[in-house]
Amino acid sequence: MSSLTDLADEYAFLEGDDRYRLLIDLGRALEPMPDALKTEATLVRGCSASVWVYPTRGEDGTLHFLADSNAAITKGIIALVLLTVQDQAPRAILATDIEAALAPFDLKNQLSSNRTQGIPNMIALIRETAARQS
């Protein structure tokens, strides 16, 4: 996957449907999440689509998140969020301003409120996980 900065630059040059395609492609590139992990316990509340996030801890103490959604564009948004925190130490995740990192994508103005309403809940879940692990 590209860096978040590279993706933001590419996204800025695209319009409407091409932006959707970029998000869908990002979602397709996510590491597959086994169906067995898609449970009530891993379901992110407050999302219009079903979104699951499952954290794992590496031997080096970093957090790695498996995530999936039943909606293609939502899955792409998940991929953007994960690009800001994937495989980092819990303290680094807690220090990351995820909202600022996503600001160049202007998701609230680019997508319907149904598609973006769960983003704060997903970010909160990632932060809560990092706080428990730090």
Output the keywords.
single chain; 53% helix; 10% strand
Describe the structure.
It contains eight helices and two strands. The chain has a single domain, classed as Alpha-Beta Complex (Sufe protein. Chain: A), CATH 3.90.1010.10. The protein has helices spanning 4-13, 16-28, 72-85, 90-95, 98-102, 107-110, 113-116, 119-133, and strands at 51-57, 63-69. Helix 2 crosses helix 3 and helix 3 packs parallel to helix 8. A two-stranded antiparallel sheet has the order 1-2. The protein has 134 residues and is mainly alpha-helical. 53% of the residues lie in helices and 10% in strands.
SSE topology:
Elements: H1 4-13, H2 16-28, E1 51-57, E2 63-69, H3 72-85, H4 90-95, H5 98-102, H6 107-110, H7 113-116, H8 119-133
Helix pairs in contact: 2-3, 3-8
What CATH architecture label applies? Alpha-Beta Complex
Stretches where pLDDT is under 50 for at least 5 consecutive residues are none
Strand proportion: 5-15%
The SS-based structural class is: mainly alpha
In short:
The chain is mainly α and 134 residues long. It has helices at 4-13, 16-28, 72-85, 90-95, 98-102, 107-110, 113-116, 119-133; strands spanning 51-57, 63-69.
